Design the sequence.
């Protein structure tokens, strides 16, 4: 019988609706990050760097790009005969078939997969956080404290604590109270959504709560273990950790990569981030280009100026164009004499010549003020923006747009332009 000490279950089925048009056609963990990576590369790299060689990736929403990216796990050394990476979508069963309805329900539907490896411990991870963490150190603490469940926590500012699951601990680090997004938090130790369970405890909780609708770790499994006097321990993490679930935090995390001394360093030898990157030619930068404090990925051709921006692979920037404080994902083409300011432009988009993005006054977005905010212009993948138009801030564009869609050649601040149909 196969025996693994610890296996990981990586939850990557989320839509990520707070990323707006960026996740209209792709799951949040598959969104590009830092030029050449995708968000899921970070937890996958953490697993292999921590010696965890068996990872189940639970997918559901728009999984195609995620599945293609992961493949058989070669870039992360997870192409193993025993273990390795396995993509686990919902599947039809003889009695009833259902989508994953909550984080714990997704894990419950894959009990058979976990039982195959007869693990001592199961590591539960989210596929949408940017961080480096040695799960082996967390496992050592789990064993040393004889815990049934260990929850990774990190201190957050008190005023933000109500957005998280909050734990209160005693001197030994044992959790004495667990509050899910409390109005008046009793501490500032926030759960990071990273758990190590002793396998029998997880198995029992999942089976006991299997009838619970939308069964979730924070709302159901953790409180159940707590109420049944299990030993819940907190593992405090003080490194860099970013939930890139909003456009603002996603933009910030990318911009932090290009700081003079980045808080999150992609260039460390001892904790590499691995990815599935295509074989591309080197980037080309023309003699008149100016590039300052930016990440430029392979296969890009730059004929304009790029300042404080992150460019993915295969991006083309036309002559006379100036890019500032922006994220340009792979295979985007931007025409000549454009001004692009604080924009997020998703993959395979074409921007015509003489286009200005990010102009005008700060007006809240009319349709989704909570999503399209922070002075950003967000353009979904496979979109077309025609030549000679101007686009205001807190705006979103998706689809193949034409000159007629822009009143007086302008999309005003706070407007949203979503076109049906695909670019052929």
Sequence:
């Amino acid at each position: 019988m196969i025996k693994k000490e610890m296996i990981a279950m990586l939850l990557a089925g989320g839509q990520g609706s707070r990323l707006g048009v960026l996740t209209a056609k792709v799951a949040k963990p598959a969104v590009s990050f830092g030029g050449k990576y995708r968000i899921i590369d970070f937890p996958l790299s953490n697993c292999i760097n921590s010696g965890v060689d068996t990872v189940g990736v639970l997918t559901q929403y728009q999984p195609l790009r995620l599945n293609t990216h992961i493949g058989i796990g070669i870039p992360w050394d997870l192409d193993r005969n025993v273990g390795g990476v396995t993509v686990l979508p919902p599947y039809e069963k003889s009695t009833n078939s259902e989508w994953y309805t909550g984080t714990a329900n997704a894990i419950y539907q894959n009990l058979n997969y976990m039982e195959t490896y007869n693990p001592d411990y199961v590591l539960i991870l989210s596929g949408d956080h940017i961080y480096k963490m040695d799960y082996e150190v967390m496992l050592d603490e789990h064993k040393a404290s004889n815990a049934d469940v260990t929850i990774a926590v990190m201190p957050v500012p008190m005023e933000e604590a109500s957005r998280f699951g909050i734990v209160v601990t005693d001197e030994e680090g044992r959790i004495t109270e667990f509050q899910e997004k409390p109005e008046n938090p009793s501490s500032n130790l926030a759960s990071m959504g990273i758990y190590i369970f002793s396998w029998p405890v997880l198995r029992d909780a999942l089976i006991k709560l299997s009838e619970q609708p939308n069964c979730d770790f924070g709302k159901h499994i953790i409180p159940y273990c707590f109420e049944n006097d299990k030993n819940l321990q907190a593992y405090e993490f003080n490194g860099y950790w970013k939930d890139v679930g909003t456009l603002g935090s996603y933009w910030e995390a990318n911009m932090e990569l290009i700081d003079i001394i980045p808080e999150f360093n992609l260039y460390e030898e001892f904790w590499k981030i691995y990815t599935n990157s295509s074989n591309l030619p080197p980037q080309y930068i023309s003699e008149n280009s100016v590039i300052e404090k930016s990440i430029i990925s392979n296969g890009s051709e730059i004929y304009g100026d790029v300042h404080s921006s992150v460019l993915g692979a295969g991006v083309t920037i036309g002559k006379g164009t100036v890019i500032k404080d922006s994220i340009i994902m792979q295979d985007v083409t931007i025409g000549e004499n454009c001004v692009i300011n604080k924009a997020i432009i998703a993959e395979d988009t074409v921007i015509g010549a003489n286009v200005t993005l990010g102009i005008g006054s700060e007006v809240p977005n009319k349709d989704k003020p909570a999503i399209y905010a922070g002075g950003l212009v967000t353009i979904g993948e496979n979109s077309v923006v025609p030549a000679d138009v101007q686009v205001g801030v807190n705006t979103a564009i998706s689809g193949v747009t034409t000159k007629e869609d822009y009143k007086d050649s302008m999309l005003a601040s706070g407007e949203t332009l979503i076109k049906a149909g695909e670019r052929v």
Remarks:
- The chain has eight helices and 33 strands.
- Residues 78 and 84 are 4 Å apart (CA to CA).
- The chain has a mean pLDDT of 88.
